[in-house]
Amino acid sequence: MLTSLPQRTAIRNPRAQARKTFEKQPMHIEIDEISKSFGTTAALHPVSLSLPSGALVALLGPSGSGKTTLLRILGGLEFPTSGRVLFDGQDATGLSVQERRAGFVFQSYALFRHMTVFDNIAYGLNARPRASRPTKAEIARRVTKLLDLIQLPDIGARYPSQLSGGQRQRVALARALAIEPRMLLLDEPFGALDAKVRKELRQGLRDIHDTTGLTTVFVTHDQEEAMELADLVVVMSMGRIEQIGKPQDIRARPATAFVKDFITA
Amino acid sequence: MSDASLAKPVRFRAATEESPATRWALITVAFAGLAILVFAPLIAVFVEALADGVAASLKSLASPDARDAIRLTLTIAAISVPLNAIFGIAAAWFITKFDFRGKAFLITLIDLPFSVSPVVAGLCIVLMFGANSAIGGWLVAQGYPIVFAMPGIILATMFVTFPFVARELIPVMIEQGRAEEEAALTLGASGWRTFWTVTLPNIRWALLYGVLLCNARAMGEFGAVAVVSGKIRGETATMPTTIEMLYQEYLSVAAFSLAAVLALLALVTLLLKTALEIRHADQLAATHRH
């Protein structure tokens, strides 16, 4: 398993300084024999997986493959029927969703529709207990910085209904990053966008990952998206992991008939 | 040989558009129905109330019985509506945000007060809390009678008006799904904070409608209240039961004056709703859809 990744962060990026505000050492995530059943149907058979620190990982598979369930288990939105989740070697299985500190981007973004973009991004900071809550001025400063990071500096006063699909996705990203998350989890982040915007935002996600250095996991059913964007691709089907590997390795040596079929589709 | 119809310009009609004759017929039926069933009776109430002049009408409203009835009805509404709003939110929240066995049964149960006759509901309360029942007997002994007293009227009103808030909220909350709440939780908000900052603002319009409807019905409820209250004048007689008693005694000016006040309270409720809708029209449109 790869432990260190080639540093893609280029000095060309003036946003590289934003990195300082995030984790010095990105988190290593270990999934140990996790299974999940809903009633009598098994969404996940025991799966194990090690996500290297700072990697951009794609969970790739058709619908019903268990990839979203796995992502939600990482974020603390679902609890596994059995197995453990380890963050930096520490058992995190029992941590509540709030304690996980995962920046989560939802499939249709789930922006708070009654709040401005500014208030959406500031939500996580305002929700902190008084002792650790930044001052109003500090919150404003951080929101402004995040709006710059997503390259939408002037939309703070708008409501989600006044934004395009691509803008919403970036606001959702900024909102997730505002809590200084330990990892970034994205559920079909490009699913609700049309083909052209999709391609543009792929690079956007790559840049944000490289800027923040966070261990990032995204779910997708689009093999091209996974192959182009991710450092590590996890191919899933029917609640099982079919193959784990770098895009070029999976393409060169598909481990099973399913993988071969799926990536050439 | 020239056909006149050939020269006639062809008029196209949208598929959903009806011919003028059909349109006018439908509009007439709707207006006639409204006039006969809604406006005429409402006007009749006010005409009867003012039959002996404004002074006589006001004098009857100033009588102790009428004033007690108005005060009691407003008190009942002030207590039962907020309680039902809380129960309604809790029920809707529970039903829409969680998956559990017996969910369909619970939804049916919430609708029960709509299908059960209010008189039957009143009798149920008498059976459960009357002086002859175990619970009722004990409570009377402690000095807290339920039946023929305010608590009974509140119970009866709450039973009858229970579905209004939950019924308004459930479809809205189902449509909105759980994603926004989940987002708030991942951002570190507690369940309580999520409720106040995300759930409640998203349902506030539906909640307002539910509360207004609930209030109108709470003030107007007759059947269930008539059974449990005992209609003791100056003590447990609400506006609707007082109106009925006055009418039975041929005191028509007094009866219709009080009826006019009750109708006015309902009209104020409706006007309030419309005013809020107009004032916040843009916000309503903005928050309805993403």
Main beta sheet of chain B: none
CATH homologous superfamily classification of the largest domain in chain B: MetI-like
Q: Which structural class is indicated by helix and strand composition of chain A? A: alpha/beta
The separation of the N and C termini of chain A measures 27 Å
Number of helices of chain B: 15
Pair with the biggest interface: A-B, 31 and 20 residues
CATH architecture of the largest domain in chain B: Orthogonal Bundle
**Structural class designation of chain B:** mainly alpha
State the domain count of chain B.
2
The span between the termini of chain B is 62 Å
State the helical fraction of chain B. over 70%
Question: Could you describe the 3D structure shown?
Answer:
The complex is a heterodimer of chains A (265) and B (290). With 265 residues, chain A is α/β, with parallel strands linked by helices. Chain A contains nine helices and ten strands. In chain A, strand 1 (29-38) and strand 2 (41-51) form a beta hairpin. In chain A, helix 3 (117-126) crosses helix 4 (136-149), helix 3 (117-126) runs parallel beside helix 5 (165-178) and helix 4 (136-149) packs across helix 5 (165-178). Chain A starts with 28 loop residues before the first strand and ends with a helix. Chain B has 290 residues and is mostly helical. Chain B has two domains: 18-49; 53-283, MetI-like (MetI-like fold), CATH 1.10.3720. Chain B has 15 helices and no strands. In chain B, helix 9 (163-176) packs antiparallel against helix 11 and helix 11 runs antiparallel to helix 14. Classes of the chains: A alpha/beta (265), B mainly alpha (290). The A-B interface holds A 75-77, 97-98, 100-104, 106-108, 110-114, 123-124, 127-128, 159-162, 168, 175-176, 178-179 and B 179-180, 182-190, 193, 197-198, 201-202, 286-287, 289-290.
